[in-house]
């Protein structure tokens, strides 16, 4: 059951990284491209909420300290998604104030092509870094899973050895 939650967490981490990258790209986009990013982020936020609900259902079915630990992680994910949703709402909000529109247009006119290129390069670097972090997170989860499997196997081997010792000492005592 924990591996299912780990799988949900991996999916959630990939989604939130993509949402974060798209939110930063929405800031520099306009027109149809901005609308497409907004629609993508809306869909991805809904998907992330569904993943959190699935995690909560799985956690409810557990018992003991694992449930408490996982419940804390799910609440942490929920708080993160709430923060991302608020940030997204601020970014997608249309500029209603005329002075803001004028300032934005004058800013656009004052931005050189070189500055735009550097901004896009920086955005791409942030996206690559996010993917690298996600890969690292995925590897950490896989390593944790392997470690827990090794510990389980060692525990089973220990029990087998103890049973063998018990039978051997029983045989010697006869």
UniProtKB/TrEMBL annotation:
Is Transmembrane helix one of the keywords UniProt gives this record? Answer: yes
For membrane topology, the record states: Single-pass type IV membrane protein
Identification of the protein by name: Vesicle transport through interaction with t-SNAREs-like protein 1A
What organism does the UniProt record list as the source?
Answer: Harpegnathos saltator (Jerdon's jumping ant)
Q: What are the Vesicle transport v-SNARE N-terminal domain coordinates in residue numbering?
A: 1-90
A single GO cellular-component term on record? Golgi apparatus
Gene Ontology MF terms in the entry: SNAP receptor activity; SNARE binding
UniProt-listed Gene3D superfamilies: 1.20.5.110, t-snare proteins
Q: Which InterPro entries match?
A: SNARE (IPR010989), v-SNARE_N_sf (IPR038407), Vesicle_trsprt_v-SNARE_N (IPR007705)
Q: What Pfam family does this protein match (any one)? A: V-SNARE_C
Could you tell me the keywords of this UniProt record? Answer: Coiled coil, Membrane, Protein transport, Transmembrane, Transmembrane helix, Transport
- The main place the protein resides is membrane
Q: Which superkingdom does the taxonomy of this entry point to?
A: Eukaryota
The stretch of residues making up the signal peptide is: none
Specify whether Protein transport is a keyword of the entry. yes
Tell where it localizes.
Endomembrane system
Q: Coiled coil: which residue ranges?
A: 38-87
Q: What family does the Swiss-Prot or TrEMBL record give for this protein? A: Belongs to the VTI1 family.
A GO BP entry: retrograde transport, endosome to Golgi
């Amino acid at each position: 059951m924990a591996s299912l939650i780990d799988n949900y967490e991996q999916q959630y981490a990939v989604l939130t990284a993509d949402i974060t990258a798209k939110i930063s790209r929405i800031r520099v986009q306009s027109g149809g491209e901005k609308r497409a990013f907004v629609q993508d982020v809306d869909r991805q936020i809904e998907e992330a909420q569904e993943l959190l609900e699935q995690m909560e259902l799985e956690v409810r079915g557990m018992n003991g300290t694992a449930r408490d630990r996982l419940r804390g992680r799910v609440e942490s994910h929920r708080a993160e998604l709430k923060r991302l949703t608020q940030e997204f709402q601020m970014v997608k909000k249309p500029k209603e104030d005329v002075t803001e529109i004028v300032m934005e247009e004058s800013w656009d006119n004052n931005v050189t092509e070189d500055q735009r290129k550097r901004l896009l390069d920086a955005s791409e670097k942030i996206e690559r870094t996010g993917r690298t972090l996600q890969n690292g997170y995925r590897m950490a989860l896989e390593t944790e899973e392997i470690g827990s499997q090794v510990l389980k196997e060692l525990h089973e081997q220990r029990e087998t050895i103890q049973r063998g010792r018990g039978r051997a000492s029983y045989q010697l005592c006869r």
